[in-house]
Amino acid sequence: MGRKNDGVLKWTLIAICAIFLFIMxxxxxxxxxATALREGFGAYAAALSDEYARKAVGLTIKATLWAVGLNxxxxxxxxxxxxxxxxxxxxxxxxxxxxxxxxxxxxxxxxFVLTFGRQSFLYDYLKAAGISxxxxxxxxxxxxxxxTFPYISxxxxxxxxxxxxxxxxxxxxxxAKTFTIFRKVTFxxxxxxxxxxxxxxxxxxxxxxxAVSVLSGHLRGKTNTMPLYIELLYQxxxxxxxxxxxxxxxxxxxxxxxxxxILEYKGKKESEQDR
Amino acid sequence: MADTVQNYVELHDIxxxxxxxxxxxxxxxxxxxxxxxxxxxxxxxxKTTILRMIAGLETPDSGEIKIDGQxxxxxxANKRGIGFVFQSYALFRYMTVYDNIAMGLQIQKVPKQQxxxxxxxxxxxxxxxxxxxxxxNQLSGxxxxxxxxxxxxxxxxxLLLLDEPFAAIDxxxxxxxxxxxxxxxxxxxxxxxxxxxxxxxxxEVADEIILTNRGRIEQxxxxxxxxxxxxxxxxxxxxxxxxxxxxxxAFHTFGDVPGADKALIRPEFVKxxxxxxxxxxPESASIGTVEQISFRGDRTELQINVNGLLIxxxxxxxxxxxxxxxxxxxxxxxxxxxxxxxxxxLENEAVNSNYFNI
Amino acid sequence: MAIKRKKTRVIPGFGLSFGITIAMLxxxxxxxxxxxxxxxxxxxxxxxWETVSRPRVLSSYWVSFSTALVASLINAVMGLILAxxxxxxxxxxxxxxxxxxxxxxxxxxxVAGISLTHMTVSTGWVGGFFAKFGIPIAYTKAxxxxxxxxxxxxxxxRSVQPVLEKIDYQYEEAAQILGFSHARTFWKVIFPEIFxxxxxxxxxxxxxxxxxxxxxxxxxxxxxxxxEITPLLIMSELQxxxxxxxxxxxxIMLFAAFVILFINAVLQSRAxxxxxxIA
Lengths: 275, 358, 279
Hints:
The structure holds 3 protein chains of 3 kinds.
Chain A: H1 4-36, H2 40-49, H3 51-84, H4 90-102, H5 105-116, H6 122-128, H7 137-148, H8 151-163, H9 166-173, H10 178-207, H11 210-216, H12 226-235, H13 239-274
Helix pairs in contact in A: 1-13, 2-13, 3-7, 3-8, 3-10, 5-7, 5-11, 7-10, 7-11, 8-10, 9-10, 10-13, 12-13
Chain B: E1 7-18, E2 21-32, E3 36-40, H1 47-55, E4 62-67, E5 70-71, E6 82-85, H2 97-107, H3 112-125, H4 141-153, E7 159-163, H5 171-188, E8 191-196, H6 199-205, E9 208-213, E10 216-221, H7 223-228, H8 233-238, E11 243-245, E12 262-265, E13 270-274, E14 286-295, E15 299-306, E16 309-316, E17 327-332, E18 334-339, E19 342-347, H9 349-357
Parallel strand pairs in B: 3-8, 3-9, 6-7, 7-8
Antiparallel strand pairs in B: 1-2, 1-4, 4-5, 9-10, 11-12, 12-18, 13-17, 14-15, 14-17, 15-16, 18-19
Helix pairs in contact in B: 2-3, 2-4
Chain C: H1 14-42, H2 45-52, H3 55-88, H4 94-100, H5 103-106, H6 109-120, H7 125-131, H8 141-166, H9 169-177, H10 182-211, H11 214-220, H12 230-239, H13 243-278
């Protein structure tokens, strides 16, 4: 295996990859930070402390918390029910859970408009009850939940499938209740996968653009999330402002990537130990 | 039922199907209190299904399961008073040995001090003292099995079920664990059922064997009974190291069974003599040629061709050696003759006549 | 036997977890999907057909399809090389490179979109360089393709990587003992093994690219007939409250996504059959 052209091939391929990734992935990141700071740190801080910017950050965090919270509960329940029990329709349920991954975000927005919008039969009831969903905060939250729906269950299900049901059966034979079994037996297996799912879900929830764009109505200070606010600034030629808000999301993305590699490493280490 | 011995576990007309697959068909048996019973059979014979139904991990399609005189079909698994040792042990991987054993007691809300005493006692019993703070992945296979055993008996179950308890352990340790488990269960006096596919294991460990095949019970009996007097063709061929052959009439002085299919000969039925050795029943011996000799440590195993029929025989190391190609005299004490599902034990008539003559 | 069978589940908690799962699934996925179906049923076919076959819509299909295809092909090649480099070679910064692959999943698409756009306009770092040669990038199909390449990078790498990791070195050693050259070993021994994963990564990336909106909308320039992608067209119909047209075009996109995933499933099962035969 120690042929000369091995080394040449190896380093050529590595160089191709490095250049490709640098231009496609790293350069845009550097560019964001450079543009955000090009008018000095003062302008950067001013752009971020703008009232609408703060409100956009607030709404993004709110929508993200809702999405992550509900999807965590859902993800754990769905994973538990799919991996620990046999029942009819299991395949259909798994397919439906994964569906939001394959649907274009614009179409995701569209189906919620069709469900709650003016032409829907629900519209009159909602109006009578004084609830507005479309072009309001609940719509933004719903869209965010939809696009991140499978993120947590998808991370947990493979881990639980690999683990099997023996330990839970053993605990159930001892008379343990659902919550005890979950907390003492199942949870330790999935904790890293769950955390990883939460991280992915957070990243996607904060960054969702298309579906939220359809449902928000772009009301500045009311239904604008960070990505929508960035769009607004960019289209208004406020590049410093757009890139300044973007830089916050870049920081988030970098944190996500760092956590990802840590969590993946931890998860791998533990599953290796089990062997 | 009042007069008969009260069975601790009873199965009545149990049936279980998985789709088209018939896992259990009309299963009936009873197990006396305090007995150690083996559910033995080839893989896919339905033995594990029976065990899991007794445990309450599976539900029979029809039939009744009784434990201690009570029908338990609708009693959930955790209320049946059983201990279960899983094939893979199913130890809680994220709990220490101590917590694994204590879990069942904690769920029953036993006071802490009592739990501590019980766990310490059990650790002592299974000789794992000092390992209580280890995690399962830090233990050897044999140690894990002993933890699983201790965990299963911690809440003092009346019935212990073990699913292939030795399958995941390497051969050398397995031998030790077998005698350990038999001794342990004997000491505790707990009614136990274990599943195995290994006939040696079943015969060595169990008081009673329930032999299953294709979802049915073939035979129930003590190891010696079931080995010596098989009632079905399957039982006869399952045990021992059989040579199956057609045309057993080639051997002398056996009675004739009309309509017989074939015969089974176990090595212990065969006695081999060198041509110059003295022999008890010279008139009934056949002459064969040794085709192969394999050394088995304490004995040698011979493959002998007798008129085109290949049979296996054993010869102790102390006896004078035999070489490949040598002509030998072969004497059969008895054979099993199979006729459909039936088994007929034929004793060599020479032995009987001799017996009567003296 | 007429015994009533109550199925005993040994592990508790089925009812609770199943209930929560179904409730949330209904609210988030099933009911919205049903409303799509109900609304579709109200469309007349003639209206539907007229909407989806308008010249502007037709050209948007071509823009979406051609850019997604080119971007996915670029990603298939680069993804294969990346996966190979990450699995087979050791070099400083490997873990960093491995982590970086996931950036397009972590970085919001709108952020990627404005950054790529601003870089490739004629005054940007990259756009300025190409502008010297008279090659515009932003607001052309080339720009759209670049945005889609960005989005699709992780798909092929992450499908091929685990398969490549599992291929035993003994395979290649066996091939080399038989006297195969390196190139021949790769094409005859390794490539057939990773081909199904490559196809699967390619189709996933392709499907994602077809539906992509956030990163493309800025760089595309959105000139009708030239750089207008289909999702954008749906968006503008929605902004005009023309739900019928938006839904009609969305149905075409959903159909396309379904066809792509179906083709992938067929290819996968054929490939696994082929491998199964050898094994």
